[in-house]
Amino acid sequence: MTKGGNGFVPSVPLRIAVHGGLDAMALLLTEHGVVRGDGDVVFHGAPVHPSGAVRLTQGGGTSWLDVGLPEVEQQITRVLVVGSTDRGTLRDVVGPAVEAFAPDGTPVVRYDVTDAAEETAMVLAELYRRAGGWKFRAVGQGYGNGLAGLATDHGVDVADASRARDDTPPAARSHVPPPARTPAPPVPAPPPAQGFAPAPPPPGFAPPAPGPAAGPPASAPPAFAPPPAGPPAFAPPGFAPPSFAPSQVSKAPPPVAPVAPATPAPAPTPFAVPGAPEPWTYGPVFAPYTQTGRDNDVITVDGLPPGPVIVQLDVEGDGYTGLATLNRRNKEQDYLVNSTEDDFRGRVLVTVPRNGTLRLKLEAEGPWRIEVSPLASAFRLTEVETQFRGPDVLLHTGGVADLAIQYRGDDNLIVNVFELHGHDDHTALPDDDNVVNEIGKRRETVPLPEGPLVVQFESADGSWRAHLKRVQPPSRRGRLS
Questions:
Q1: Highest-confidence range of 57-66, 179-188, 330-339, by mean pLDDT?
Q2: Which residues is 348 bridged to in the sheet?
Q3: Which of 284, 309, 286 is nearest to 107 (CA)?
Q4: How far are the Cα atoms of 25, 179, 233, 235, 316 from residue 187, in angstroms, in the given order?
Q5: Cis amide bond preceding 203, omega within 30
């Protein structure tokens, strides 16, 4: 990704690598672009955010920020990834870069800084909420006045930064540290990754068939471990799983080649926050594929893992929009979108054939953007009411619950539920249960069985809202497929 570029990322716990020997920091900002207090600054002196959603591990040439996107508080709209140096300026740093990895080690996005100058601190990237999901932006904004200037711009009080040194008790810390600091305690290097592997299948579930063996990238993140018990400490944190949604049509980064699944390796332990939704581990995680164009076209995506994926389509225009899969005979097979809505936006379920090649026929009038992403990237249903637009795919991982829907469209509303418990085939979804098929504006409350579930809004024009009610604790905790 180049400077200024942006794109949706799976709403999973991402591992953010800050390369080049830079000291890493994260600032959690509200919609006003400022922190709520010193607790929203994660750095070497306070390496764990009070919510547990962001953790810092610093040592060696790479610093790691573990950002649990599903666990980030609703008041937080942006997470800044900051890099700084107390050894000269950023111009002197070799290979400054920021890179995000999915929980299984799959690389998601990378930004290499190529225009560093005399600054000593820089906002490398930011994760920000957009349309129910999260996007990553390559920022590259440097600060010649260092961390003090950067922090002040985002509402941090640095009038007495000396109080934030390492020898200050945690209860007395209230400021961002000055550029010069005592080095953090050395962190034992975790064992090198042996390859990417899907998350561990629960009892009774078969993992997807492995593909050709593939080694980890040169900068693969260390393996995940369970979160530490007791007070925060400098230890490699653990993590769990995903979501995204429509965006404005814009020039997207070059297509990202999906990563082939690797020979199974010892699987990581999902990170769990008490009271948080269950991790989602059904199906492989891969880097999203993005393509842009204009008017009618045929899209071909090779190298995808077989099974259900999400296709997000954004069209800027007021004509007809149609999307269908093509079979081996190059004939239309499954109709996914059939809409006359202006500026169509939506996400649909598609099953990738066993040969790993997805072929789509698109009918559109105007510029469009299409993105193929893993099922795990879908928005996670919670008790917080969220607004959506167009067809979409949602996930539920908790116990039995009621799904409340407020539909404002004039056309057909079709909602299907796919229950995954006991389903051991990751290459295809089980038969669906149609729970809503109505026309016009409505309020619906649908009883949902225990997760994991895929909730597909197959047809929904305009805007609509959804949230969970009366959610019960899961009785099969840890049995996600």
A1: 330-339
A2: 311
A3: 286
A4: 17, 21, 11, 7, 50
A5: no
**Domains in the chain with CATH codes:** 6-172 (2.60.60.30), 289-377 (2.60.120.380), 378-481 (2.60.120)
The string of pLDDT tens digits covering residues 417-462 is: 999 988 888 899 999 999 999 988 889 999 999 989 999 999 998 7
Confidence (pTM): 0.49
Residue 393 has pLDDT above 90, yes or no: yes
Q: Over range 245-265, report the average pLDDT.
A: 36
Pairing of strands 401-407, 442-448: antiparallel
Q: Radius of gyration (Cα) for the chain, nearest Å? A: 22
Running DSSP on this structure, what letter comes out for residue 444?
A: E
Distance set, CA 82 to CA 25, 48, 97, 382, 427 (Å): 5, 15, 11, 30, 39
Structure tokens at 434: 């149609």
**Strand order, beta sheet including 386-389:** 386-389, 463-469, 401-407, 442-448
Calculate the alpha carbon distances from 241 to 188, 202, 249, 260 in Å.
26, 15, 27, 19
